[in-house]
Amino acid sequence: MSARYAVYYAPDPASQLWELACAWLGRDPHRRQDCQRPSLPGLADLDLDALTSSPRGYGFHATLKAPFALAQGRREAELLDFAEGFAGRRRAFTTAISPQALGRFLAFRLDADSPEMNVLAEACVREFDPFRAPLSDFDIARRRKARLTPAQDARMLEWGYPYIFEDFRFHMTLTNGVEDEALRARVLDALRQMFAYVSGPHRFDAVAIYRQADRDAPFEVVERFAFAGAAAPARVD
Question: Which are the contacts of 175, defined by CB distance < 8 A and separation ≥ 6?
């Protein structure tokens, strides 16, 4: 099976937010290594591997262009070159983030709507789409298990992902779905304490290309591309 790629927002791998989030998830997709998990008061009885299995596999990120196989005739080098040019046409912006509930999940979310983030997300969906192969029948059927609205189904077929444009919700996922409300509240309280010093205003200054070698492999950072005027991009050799 061919590799999949995604256009994600990923914090600076030298930042405290990145280091804390990777420690929480137990894996650093930039350095491509496991991380020692923190010891959090109140969560000692929980299996953090089980609680974070899905976001650990994807790596800490926010989805801007959902995972896709490369279109026929496209190569990884072309995708990276395009991403570099895309980032060079963008300017950094700042908006506040914090751990919050997103339905059954817990994630870093925006504290208020950000027009800049909405513009960035829509641009990624549209401008990177020529690199995306059409969805397989398997992926279409998998997406439709979520009971999509007619509009979401149409967007999935046209753009490869249903939760875009007016349905876009910025989030950097921290847990699997947590059904029990009391447990969800307990974990959220622990996360807010853990991430207290990195919550609040956050500078969004790059996009990153992630790669998944096959469907059973974790996603890894290929390269992070800084926006114009930001620090130099971080490349993984």
Answer: 51, 52, 55, 105, 106, 107, 187
At residue 174, what is the residue type?
A: L
Domain ranges of the chain: 4-113+171-230
Compute the distance between CA of residue 133 and CA of residue 47 in angstroms, rounded to an integer: 37
For residues 42 and 194, give the distance between their C-alpha atoms in angstroms, rounded to a whole number. 12
Residue 174's closest CA among 71, 82, 43, 65? 43
Tokens of 216: 């059973």
Architecture of domain 4-113+171-230: Alpha-Beta Complex (3.90)
Task: Read off the pTM.
Answer: 0.93
Distances (CA, A) of 69 to 2, 62, 203: 7, 18, 30
Where do the H-state alpha helices sit in 89-209? 115-127, 137-144, 150-159, 181-194
Q: Which residues of the chain fall below pLDDT 50?
A: 231-237
As a whole number of angstroms, the distance between CA 219 and CA 59 comes to 6
The residue ranges of DSSP E strands in the chain, in sequence order, are 4-9, 27-28, 33-34, 62-69, 93-102, 105-110, 172-173, 200-204, 206-212, 219-226, 234-235
